[in-house]
Design goal:
Length: 332
């Protein structure tokens, strides 16, 4: 560790917050897995053959060859990082107006590190030498898509078959509601264990969200349990069910016998209408004076949904022309 710390004097981003964040990730790396997932400061001149890919609300995305390649391990002999995959393709995500908003940029970097390697690997941080905007250096996907999503939203969408907040305008009002604890609702009954995991992934406090490797381990175990359940069903064995298996059977029975099946859902093979102002592409959002993000008061109580009906009914925000249908009774 001491040798890695001594290496800190060999580079700087020019920003104390950025330097500290990168140094903390490198200090905490003790295993091979952790070392391969540290991030680093990458000077802009270490990229060549830079090619424009796309423009989004957040900024621009380029692809480039990374001359040095990514970190593989720490070399005690050379007192520096050993690297591999020299001249590999990487994606450069340049964030608009990020030269003076280090805190917001670091929040996005922190969120991405939570997602880990599950979606798009983050190699490090760089900076445009002309605009001084910060750059996220990411693994390059062949289709150029470097957008990452929080696990909770991914699981919600897979289970419900519906995009989150598909039936409402994606505007300042929705942003305020989300900060107040508003979350997407399920259109079907879902096992409580799954609901609770999604709640943890969507926790307003990023430090309370589970790490990607924890989610992976949990989902892997659940996958095995589901396979066992299907085998049990085939041979009519009704005992030795795990808690998840019991909840799956319960929810299957409820959903089969409930009028909830009439709700539009892609998972049910039916159509749904997306709000004309619901956007699912990257945009630059300049919302001012948003409240401090928090969970609903009953967020971790045992509910059948990500968010309880009681909270929906109690959520009152005094905003001019607020027009979001979020409750089952049609309140706005």
């Amino acid at each position: 560790m001491f040798e890695k710390i001594r290496n800190f004097k060999n580079w700087t981003s020019g920003n104390h917050n950025v330097d500290k964040f990168i140094q903390d990730t490198q200090r905490s790396a003790h295993t091979i897995y952790e070392i391969k997932n540290v991030i680093e400061w990458i000077p802009n001149d270490r990229f060549c053959n830079i090619e424009y890919i796309a423009k989004g609300g957040f900024g621009k995305v380029y692809k480039a060859n990374w001359i040095d390649g990514c970190i593989d391990k720490w070399s005690s002999d050379n007192r520096n990082w050993r690297r591999k995959d020299q001249y590999k393709f990487v994606a450069l995500k340049i964030l608009n107006n990020s030269e003076n908003v280090a805190s917001e940029f670091m929040h996005e970097i922190t969120s991405h590190c939570k997602v880990d390697n599950f979606v798009v690997k983050l190699y490090g941080i760089s900076q445009d030498p002309k605009t001084k905007n910060y750059i996220m250096v990411l693994d390059y996907a062949k289709d150029g898509d470097t957008v990452h999503m929080v696990f909770g939203i991914i699981m919600y969408e897979v289970i419900s078959g519906l995009p989150p907040y598909y039936d409402m305008s994606h505007d300042n009002n929705l942003a305020i509601k989300i900060c107040q604890g508003f979350r997407p609702k399920f259109n079907i009954k879902v096992p409580q264990l799954i609901v609770q995991l999604i709640k943890r992934c969507l926790d307003a406090n990023s430090s309370s969200r589970p790490e990607a490797k924890v989610v992976k381990k949990t989902l892997s175990q659940w996958s095995k349990e589901v396979i066992i359940l299907e085998n049990y069903k085939k041979i009519n064995i009704c005992n030795n069910y795990t808690e998840l298996n019991k909840q799956i059977i319960e929810t299957e029975n409820v959903n089969k016998n409930s009028s909830i099946n009439s709700i539009s859902s892609t998972s049910l093979g039916l159509s749904y209408k997306t709000h004309p102002k619901a956007y699912y592409t990257s945009r630059l959002l300049n919302f001012n004076n948003l409240p401090e993000p928090k969970n609903s008061y009953d967020y971790y109580e045992k509910n059948d949904d990500i968010i309880s009906k009681e909270f929906l009914e109690s959520l009152q925000i005094d905003i001019y022309q607020l027009n979001m249908n979020y409750g089952s009774n049609g309140k706005e």
